[in-house]
Amino acid sequence: MRNLVALLSGLLFGAGLLLSGLADPAKVLGFLDISLMVKGEWDPSLMLVMMTALGVYLPVYLLWVKPRMASSQGPVLDSQYHVPNRSHIDGPLIVGAALFGLGWGMLGICPGPAVVNLSSLDPMALAFMAAMVLGAYLGRLIQRLIARRQQCPVEA
User: Fold this and answer.
1) Is residue 156 part of a domain?
2) Residue numbers of the domain that contains 46
3) Residue 62 located in a structural domain
4) Domain count of the fold of the chain
5) Which of 33, 82, 127, 128 has the fewest CB neighbours in a 10 Å radius?
6) Is 125 inside any structural domain?
7) Which of 13, 11, 1, 14 is nearest to 78 (CA)?
8) CA separation for the pair 59, 85 (Å, rounded)
9) One matching Pfam family, short form (predicted)?
10) What is the structure's pLDDT at 156?
11) How far is Cα 38 from Cα 52, in angstroms, rounded to an integer?
């Protein structure tokens, strides 16, 4: 049942990305490029999509999710909520956020829409996904190397 709900949730999310235009890199870049405001060509429609999503989720979070988390009740189809447990801002977070923002700003695509765009078999979508997977692998490899170096410092 849990996998079926996950599949249906993913399909709903993907359909929402397609209908809203968030899977279209040109539309996303039209929103992110504020210089288009001067020309009268800026597209604010994605801001409405994001505000609507927040307007739907915020009451659900405040009325359902947050009280269940506070009372240590798990979600309906799992034993616990999987939320980040770190609350401090550190170097890896800043670098990761900067890379994400640069990639989104240059290409107009982020991981969710990238998965949706795989169905088109567009070479750019495939290349983006390959680069994203490679980047995640290299990031974890670098984290392991840093952790190993901190455990066993090299003497000069």
Assistant:
1) no
2) 2-151
3) yes
4) 1
5) 82
6) yes
7) 1
8) 22
9) DUF6691
10) 55
11) 26
